[in-house]
Design goal:
With 118 residues, the chain is mostly helical. It is built from 5 helices and 2 strands; from the N terminus they run αααββαα. The longest helix has 39 residues.
């Protein structure tokens, strides 16, 4: 995520459900055409599109844009490097989830084994 020093530069995200591309542009310090381009480059960024192909971003989209901005502008990643970093973070979260489920299953199987032995 963004470091604390970078969060001070950007305005706080209001408690709204949906944001227009203009609002997100101001909240993230990125021009609208850059946001449209990032939608093509980052699969994690997919705002809701409604009538007339108008984009509506949710809170998690704004957070993702700030993360992408931090990787590209502050940390000096290329588009490809940022894409790879985001996908590896996502994979790491999935692996952690799978490990927790497997541990829980092992524990339950051990309990069943104890019941069968007694």
């Amino acid at each position: 995520m963004l470091e604390a020093s970078h969060n001070n530069e950007l305005p706080p995200i209001p408690g709204k459900r949906y944001f227009t591309i203009g609002e997100v542009s101001e909240l993230c310090g990125v021009k609208p055409h850059v946001l449209r381009y990032w939608e093509q480059e980052f699969e994690q960024l997919a705002p809701v599109k409604r009538r007339g192909n108008r984009r509506y971003y949710q809170h998690h989209d704004v957070m993702m844009i700030r993360q992408i901005r931090g990787l590209l502008y502050d940390q000096g990643f290329t588009i490809g490097g940022a894409r790879q970093r985001l996908s590896s973070e996502q994979t790491g979260e999935e692996n952690t989830r799978y490990k927790l489920v497997i541990r829980q299953m092992i524990s339950e199987l051990e309990d069943v084994l104890k019941l069968l032995r007694s």
